Amino acid sequence: MSTSLPHTASRIAGRSRKVPRSYQRGSRWDRIPSPDLVDVTRHLAVMIGAKVPLLQALETVEQQNTHRGARTVLAAVRKSVERGQTLSHSLKQHPRSFGQLYVALTQVGERAGVLDVVYLRLSEHLEKAAALRRKIRLAFMYPGLILTVALGATFFFLTAIVPTFAEIFQDFGAALPRPTQVVLRVSEVMSSYGLVALVVGLLGWGGLYIALRQPRGRYLWDRVKLRLPLVGTLLRKSLVTRFCQTLGTLLTSGVPLVEALTIVGQSVENTFVQRQLVQAVARVRRGAGIHKALASLSVFPTMVIQMVAVGEETAQLDQMLLHAATHYEREVDTAVETLTAVLEPVLIIVIGAGLGGILVALYLPMFEMMNVVA
Question: What pTM was computed for the model?
Answer without folding.
Answer: 0.75
